[in-house]
Amino acid sequence: MRTSSNPAFRKLPHGQGGYATFDRRGGGMMGGGAAYADARASQAGIGRAGAGERPLTVDDVVVKTAITGGVALVAGILTAWSGMFFLALPAIIVGFVVSLIVIFKQSSNPALVLLYSASMGVALGALTGALEFSGTNFQGIGFQAIVGTAGVFVGMLIVYKTGAVKVTPKFTKWLMGASIGVLILMVVNLLAGFFTEGGLGLRDGSPLAYLFSIVCIGVAAFSLMLDFDMADRAVKEGAPAKFAWYIAFGLMTTLVWLYIEILRLLSYLRSE
Predict the structure, then answer these.
(1) Fewer CB within a 10 Å sphere, N or C end of the chain?
(2) Maximum CA pair distance of the chain?
(3) What is the pLDDT of residues 21-80, one digit of tens each?
(4) Distance from C-alpha of 270 to C-alpha of 2, rounded to nearest angstrom
């Protein structure tokens, strides 16, 4: 059984059967199969679509992901355009609190998911806007980061669908280990920064910082493959259609991380 490095997807159901999916292995439409095991569904916190509920489809995932991404994009652009950069910290706090609620409650509430997207859009828009207005070297960096993030997303989706890189248990363990390692280094670098200037040098624009940002972008990009795989499993399992909001939230958290790392790397390049 595989799990995602994204905490939002770690309790998705696993099993056989389901609905139409974008799984590269199925050769198109996947139908039929066994129902959820009741105990496993209970542990996951979700179940198969019940009477009167429509099963989850790929279209549901695509539409809800597009909506959440669109909300974040509009909120970010409006924040950067208005110059209200002071909203960055409050938005980050709201987004963090909402994300914890969604993750621990396994909530598919669209209001919470959209609030998270809007909050992170405001936060990223404020950070990007402040960076762009800090000097001529950074003008247009936000657009480049958006294009870069979208490009990585589409590229990894193509890689997943074609099976160029297979999501295997070994791959999953390796990526989860890399994600934990990156997180530990970030925390240690932050703590070291309180005692020495620049900390470990992972975020100061040095050659080591370049390398670390590239590694982070790589880990975030491959995490998208695990997110695609876990979303695909939910579709095949026949989860309720409303669960698409939770899947969209999980994808959004990875995209936020990816955008931040791409923006940081671009800022290093623009500073030279």
Answers:
(1) C
(2) 61
(3) 444 443 332 333 333 233 333 333 445 655 567 888 889 999 999 999 999 999 999 999
(4) 39
6 in a structural domain: no
Please state the domain count of the chain: 1
SS3 247: helix
Residue 245 inside a domain? The answer is yes
**How far apart are the C-alpha atoms of 60 and 245, rounded to whole Å?**
8
Tens digits of residue pLDDT in 154-207: 999 999 988 888 888 899 999 999 999 999 999 998 888 888 777 788 888 788
Domain boundaries, position 241: 18-271
Is 156 domain-assigned? yes
Q: Are 113 and 100 in contact (CB under 8 A)?
A: no
